[in-house]
From TrEMBL:
PROSITE patterns associated with the record: PX, RA
Protein family according to the UniProt entry: Belongs to the sorting nexin family.
GO process annotations (BP): endocytic recycling; intracellular protein transport; signal transduction
Annotated protein name in UniProt: Sorting nexin-17
Location in the cell: Cytoplasmic vesicle membrane; Early endosome
Residue ranges, annotated region (Disordered): 379-410
Pfam families: PX, SNX17-27-31_F1_FERM, SNX17-31_F2_FERM, SNX17_FERM_C
Function: Critical regulator of endosomal recycling of numerous surface proteins, including integrins, signaling receptor and channels. Binds to NPxY sequences in the cytoplasmic tails of target cargos. Associates with retriever and CCC complexes to prevent lysosomal degradation and promote cell surface recycling of numerous cargos such as integrins ITGB1, ITGB5 and their associated alpha subunits. Also required for maintenance of normal cell surface levels of APP and LRP1. Interacts with membranes containing phosphatidylinositol 3-phosphate (PtdIns(3P)).
Originating gene: Snx17
Lineage of the organism: Eukaryota, Metazoa, Chordata, Craniata, Vertebrata
């Protein structure tokens, strides 16, 4: 059986025959020309080298399916992963009580089935809180790890291919919790949420919590104003004032390491306002701050590597730390692209943030709205609506080649940088073509913009 990991954590184990069954079902539903090629069957027993080759091919296949907007979002693919997750963790289908946290530490207990998917659980929480249906799409469930000081470190947004109850209980660690938070980036959507009492209370609780944990920057005078609004229970005015503060609506990540502006710099990354904000501690202990706009990232990728275990032989297998990196190619100036790498256990969460910022930008461009992102199906399950499906996730891209034409040659004045600049590379240390997220919101810039 092959292990499938999400965020470096075992999601499920599947056999070649099960994956072949999934492949055939996808071909039947979507046609052979849409589904990527599947590693062929072999008549004879595989040698160890062939087993490893097949594992790599299957990994590429699963990534290609997941990154295809049609296949990756399909019920066939997602239900396959959910069923495999439940079977692997050997959790029978039964009614259970799941505890979901709100930002203020309040617990919401919902009665669900162990086999309920993320959207079902989200709907159950919304229903328990009396949050109206048309506001459910503004919120998401996140898997978090409680830190010593009572704050939360974000592991990932729970995805449609997993069962929240199984995901959290299979970690066998009470520090891991599920939390409800808003899941959009543009604070103008706050107005929709604040129209309703429950939406306002959720947003207020999150804002208070972010201020308490130092995620939103507040000076003494602002702190005094916020305190007085809190005492008056003026929740809308409190949020309005908070919206004007630095880092409002940002997700703050744990301290990690970056190679920008030089290798080995310690950095605190925050995601929000269509950018990644860096607070970098330089080797001379100086703190520098800068932002990378998502519209100027041409593409990004997440890579993981498991270091060869050189610890004592007594350490249990499977516990070796997975090293995760997020690298993005950034348009630094009119004709210069540069790769920036962040090494962090939260690299996948960072990538999910980038993708959702891009999706939101594209929804706005196409005139869609978050309200329409959820709709009810006849069978009671919630599904993404057409306005969301119209937003393609990025195409699969080949790896960047060091020998490609320098950007300057493309145009002396770049009004937009062509994605054709990414061509296939065969260098040994390269990452496979399927690991790239091209960015539909990428906007090249001209002289006038600089």
């Amino acid at each position: 059986a092959y292990n499938i990991h999400v965020n470096g954590v075992l999601h499920c184990r599947v056999r070649y025959s099960q994956l072949l069954g999934l492949h055939e079902q996808l071909r039947k539903e979507y046609g052979a020309n849409v589904v990527p090629a599947f590693p062929p069957k072999k008549i004879f027993t595989l040698t160890p080298a062939e087993v490893e080759q097949r594992r790599e091919q299957l990994e590429k296949y699963m990534q290609a399916v997941r990154q295809d907007p049609t296949l990756g979002g399909s019920e066939t693919f997602n239900s396959f992963l959910r069923k495999a997750q439940q079977e692997t963790q050997q959790i029978p289908t039964e009614e259970v009580v799941l505890e979901v946290l709100l930002s203020n530490g309040q617990k919401v207990k919902v009665t669900i089935l162990t086999s309920d998917q993320t959207e079902d659980v989200l709907e159950a929480v919304a229903s328990k809180l009396d949050l109206p249906d048309d506001l459910v799409g503004y919120f998401s469930l996140f898997l978090v790890r409680e830190t010593k000081d009572g704050a939360f470190s974000f592991v990932r947004k729970l995805q449609e291919f997993e069962l929240p109850y199984v995901s959290v209980t299979s970690l066998h660690n009470p520090e891991f919790r599920i939390i409800l938070r808003k899941s959009y980036w543009d604070s103008s959507y706050d107005d929709d949420v604040m129209e309703h009492r429950v939406g306002l209370n959720l947003l207020y609780a999150q804002t208070v919590s972010d201020i308490e944990h130092g995620w939103i920057l507040v000076n003494k005078e602002q702190h005094r104003q916020l305190k007085s609004l809190q005492e008056k229970v003026s929740k809308k005015e409190f949020i309005r004032l908070a919206q004007t503060l630095k880092y409002y609506g940002y997700l703050k990540f744990d301290p990690c390491v970056t190679d920008f502006p030089e290798k080995g710099c310690h950095v605190v990354v925050s995601a929000g306002n269509n950018e990644l904000n860096f607070q970098v501690r330089l080797p001379n202990e100086q703190i520098k701050e800068g932002s990378f706009k998502v519209t100027r990232m041409r593409c990004w990728r997440v890579t993981s590597s498991v270091p060869m275990s050189n610890g004592p032989s007594g350490t249990s297998p499977g516990k070796s730390e997975v090293k995760l990196e997020l690298a993005f190619e950034y348009l630094m100036s009119k004709d210069r692209l540069q790769w920036v790498t962040i090494t962090s256990p939260q690299a996948i969460m960072l990538s999910i943030c980038l993708q959702s910022m891009v999706d939101e930008l594209m929804v706005k461009k196409s005139g869609g709205s978050i309200r329409k992102m959820f709709r009810r199906r006849a069978n009671g399950a919630l599904r993404r609506s057409d306005s969301q499906q119209a937003v393609k996730s990025p195409p699969l891209l080949d790896s960047p080649d060091a020998s490609r034409e320098p950007m300057a040659k493309l145009s002396s004045k770049l009004t937009s940088v062509s994605l054709r600049g990414i061509s296939h590379s065969s260098s040994a240390n390269d990452v496979g073509a399927n690991d790239f997220h091209g960015n539909y919101a990428f906007e090249g810039i001209g002289d006038d913009d600089l």
